[in-house]
Amino acid sequence: MSTADIVGQVAGAFVTLSLIPQVIRVYKMKSAREISMMFTTMLWLGLFGWIAYGFLRNELPIILWNIIGAAITASLVYAKLRYGRG
Amino acid sequence: MSTADIVGQVAGAFVTLSLIPQVIRVYKMKSAREISMMFTTMLWLGLFGWIAYGFLRNELPIILWNIIGAAITASLVYAKLRYGRG
After folding, report:
1. Residue range A59-82, pLDDT digits in tens
2. Domain limits at B79?
C-alpha cells in the first residue's frame, strides 16, 4: 500500500463516517427541519453513482465505502421524512 | 474518457454539490442547531485528506472537486458557528 493509498483510505473513512454524528444528532433531537431534502437526495444519487463506478472499475473499497455511505444516508432520509415537518 | 470516468465525474459532482442546498437551507432558516459540529469537522478533515491524496497521485479532478467541497463545507462550519447556538 502506497502513502497515497493510506491517505485515500483515511480520507474516505472520515468523509463517509462524518455522516454518523449528523444522523445521531437528528434522531436525538427528533427534529430534521434544517436538513435539506435536496441535500440527502443528491447525496444518495451521487453515492449510488460511486457504487456503479466501483463495479465498472472493479474496485471493491469504492463499492464497500459507498454502500456504507448510502446506508447511513438512507437513515438520514428516513429521519427527514419522520421528523422533517413543521 | 471511459464510461467509468463519466460515471465517476457525475457521481463526484452530485456528492460535492449536494452540500449547496444544505448550506442554502441553514442560511435561509438562520438556524443550524440540528447540524452536527462533528459532522462538519470530520467532513472537512476528510476533504483535506482527499486534496492531499489528489496531490500525491497528481490527479487534478480530485484536487479541484475536493477544494470546492472544502469551500462549501467551510460555509457550513461558518453557519454552524453563527446560527448553531440555542
Report:
1. 888 899 999 999 999 999 999 999
2. 3-83
